Amino acid sequence: MQDIIDEVRQQYAPDRRVAVFQIEADDKGVLTGKTNLPEAKQALLARLQKAKLTAEDRIEMLPAEVLGEEIYGVVRVSVANIRSQPRNAAELATQALLGMPLKVLDKDQGWYLVQTPDQYIAWIDWGGLQRMNKAAFDAWTQSEKVIYLRPYGFSYEAADADGQTVSDLVAGDVLKLKAEAGEYFQVEYPDGRTAYILRSEAKRYHDWVASLSISEDKLVNTAKRMMGIPYLWGGTSYKGMDCSGFTKTIYYLNGWVLPRDASQQVHSGELVDTAAGFSNLRPGDLLFFGTRAGEGTSEKVTHVGMWIGNNEFIHASGQIRISSLNPNAPNYDEFELNRFLRAKRLLGNQKGVTNLKEGQ
Prior knowledge:
Helix 1 runs antiparallel to helix 2. This protein has a seven-stranded antiparallel sheet.
């Protein structure tokens, strides 16, 4: 029975970062655990029946019943930390920006298991999200919004940048637009708080998306604006980034949503031929690094950066920095060169990427 469970898991949920399939069977054939994949559960039961194995189904489908109708959520802080386990000491898995819609799957005391738009599944604490039922969630998603575009800033209780702040903001945060007030947008948070932000620091969301025209130069300029930001494992915001969080943020601010981790991003785009060197690379191409496959071991993609030209790439390593693959350059990075795996091009081939403009 356990072999069949493992086979179904491998087929339907090989990557536990984006799917829940935590199913076990005891010696009496009682199936327990949780999954958010109804098709996987049905496949499991069908295969057990075909194998003439008697099973008692006690599998809990997610979203969990304890959530009631509030199985939707929206991030209500500038940057929400999302962790691998429901506790503050757990590993930071990823981050989510203010206004990001979430699927709420489960609850553990003051923590909620959520799924982000890029399908990543991990735990957020109660202070990071506003739970909603479908009606409230639809109202939020269909409302007109603004996106904050400065690296850092604040919202204010009144149309006065010298007045009391409501919260901090980072580039990519999204709020509901209530009105325009001179030099300010009046905005509303997912939890109902109202505030004002400078119009010079934000745009109407649909206007921003409509104005996007991704290019090599724009990707490089976006990346260089983040120089010196400290490395943060699990970070995907101006408050700190890991390597894949950095490349994800570069592309997001240009209207494209990449998968979360380097080992997922490597499956996007098209392969660039680097067998004879790096002359075929273009700015914006992603470079992947890690451990090559060996006898009895599989390849491990553990790092990613973005090519910017002149034999250089920009990446999060200690901080956002520029490294060179030219041995004669002062910023030559021999360590990364020795573990280079491959390069992928997204411009011209959006495989595995969501284009925000196409969703307008």
